[in-house]
């Protein structure tokens, strides 16, 4: 089979979108080959080559050669968990055979090795078919800080796709790849998932090695997973996770951190006080969040309001303190040498880092530690925190008109997670009345990934149940991830 020839052995649904884990395994059991599945995945990816989703796409011959090697291995009786799956990788993460640019050709690196986490996925049978577009230097939460053609929202192309992992989210939401890998510093793995109606998982810091990543912040960066549902996302995370002795920020206990969903039991969930929530005048987003909380209550969770102030304060430190100076380590020389190749909004975000003193850096560290102590009190009394992933969603035209303030608005409920060392997942919610997706963020303390997974799975099931009860009309404009 060539990448452009549709296999006769694939069921109809797999011939129109790459499979998730369960459907890939079923197809392979029923006689499809890895060449069939991977070839179809590459065909769909290549068909979208001009849509702003991908920066680079693998050669068909190399992708199919890898698929044949996997088929030969399987013929010898060796089966791996991700056999038959295609995935794409955000272009600030190294993949051998692809250049790494972070959406800036002035950087262009030709890595000899894939990032540690990517290599683990490849070793488990998944095949990389492309590198994804992103907000340049992974600095932005909207997806418009990249070269033309802009990556567009998978649900409504007039809207932003979210960022900075814009292409990674859209590739999954449009069914171009089985899953994808992004990064998350201030919400880059959760915001685009929310904007496109799919699952985005941001693990505990250090659970997944960052080796092979162009860093914004070695303190706060993590790789993230995009998938159609929580089951796939967390199984993929389990493959990526693990201690890397060559990454000084890898958790030594990473191999022991549980990611399988824990039973819901009688969990108590925190949510911000109603008077502290802002949806920037978006009544549809506000109504969707109310419906999401109702779904959690129906699933048996107890919800209690808590003070959002320390979370918001920690989020502001990410860009409004000396912590922003850390981005100059990776990108400062490029900005100085080739300013014309750096997006104006990205320069405006990073250049202020040069103005902070060492004293101010220590003051930011002290302030953050104080806020961590305050937040710890919340998690001593509550199993997880739930809140909207984004307060609203803007059109591309609106974002381009006010690129700074509206980008900051998108991070209101995500900026704080990594500075406070929380794990998180964004899960599609009950949907907005205008057909755009809504999403709920679930957060827990470090190493609480299994708790987040458990709540996410229960919420996902509750949303599915509500969609089944209300019928298909309410989801006709949404991606299929939550109802497939």
From TrEMBL:
<feature type="domain" description="Amidase">
    <location>
        <begin position="59"/>
        <end position="450"/>
    </location>
</feature>
<dbReference type="InterPro" id="IPR023631">
    <property type="entry name" value="Amidase_dom"/>
</dbReference>
<dbReference type="GO" id="GO:0003824">
    <property type="term" value="F:catalytic activity"/>
</dbReference>
<dbReference type="Pfam" id="PF01425">
    <property type="entry name" value="Amidase"/>
</dbReference>
<protein>
    <recommendedName>
        <fullName>Amidase domain-containing protein</fullName>
    </recommendedName>
</protein>
<dbReference type="InterPro" id="IPR036928">
    <property type="entry name" value="AS_sf"/>
</dbReference>
<dbReference type="InterPro" id="IPR000120">
    <property type="entry name" value="Amidase"/>
</dbReference>
